[in-house]
Amino acid sequence: MMIVDALSWVLLVGGSLLCVVGGLGLLRLPDVYTRAHAAGINDTLGSWAILLGLMLQAGLGLVTVKLAMIGLFMALVGPVSSHALLKAAYAHGVRVQSSDEEPADVD
Questions:
Q1: Is 106 left (phi over 0), alpha (psi -120 to 50) or beta?
Q2: What is the C-alpha to C-alpha distance for residues 53 and 14, in angstroms, rounded to an integer?
Q3: CB within 8 A of 77, min separation 6: which ones?
Q4: Is residue 82 in some structural domain?
Q5: In this predicted structure, what is the pLDDT of residue 52?
Q6: Domain that holds residue 13
Q7: Does residue 103 belong to any structural domain of this protein?
Q8: Which of 9, 86, 92, 93 is 20 to 30 A from 36 via CA?
Q9: CA torsion sign, 19 to 25 to 27 to 28?
Q10: For the segment 9-55, what is each residue's pLDDT rounded down to a tens digit?
């Protein structure tokens, strides 16, 4: 039981750190495309790690099934919403910032 608790806490702390890194990526990266990449990848991996850690804490039961359903929903909705957001940005003419440009002011 001690190994399961330790693995659970490693997943919970690691997932939380991934979510924080994704949030920092939203603040630090230059344009909407790289920001969406940071949010999509890190937050998806972070939330999956948190869900797996919670599943290990819950054990086998109804709570684990509910957490798995939340994970399935996130796996389906996350990529679709990121794609729709970036497709809308591209359609409205948001361009990629090249490395020699000044960063745009974000309001």
A1: beta
A2: 10
A3: none
A4: yes
A5: 95
A6: 2-91
A7: no
A8: 9
A9: positive
A10: 999 999 999 999 988 988 888 888 888 888 888 888 899 999 999 99
- Phi-psi label, residue 94: left if phi above 0, alpha if psi -120 to 50, beta otherwise: beta
Q: Which two tokens stand for residue 51?
A: 């869900």
The answer, yes or no, to whether residue 76 has pLDDT greater than 80, is: yes
Q: At what angle do helices 32-58 and 62-91 cross, to 10 degrees?
A: 180
Dist. CA 48–CA 104, nearest whole Å: 33
Q: How many structural domains are present in the chain?
A: 1
Residue with tokens 């999956």: 48
Question: Residue 38: its pLDDT value, please?
Answer: 84
Closest CA to 40 of 72, 4, 86, 2: 86
Report the predicted TM-score, pTM, of the whole model to 2 decimal places. 0.79
Q: What span, in angstroms and rounded, lies between the C-alpha atoms of 47 and 88?
A: 25
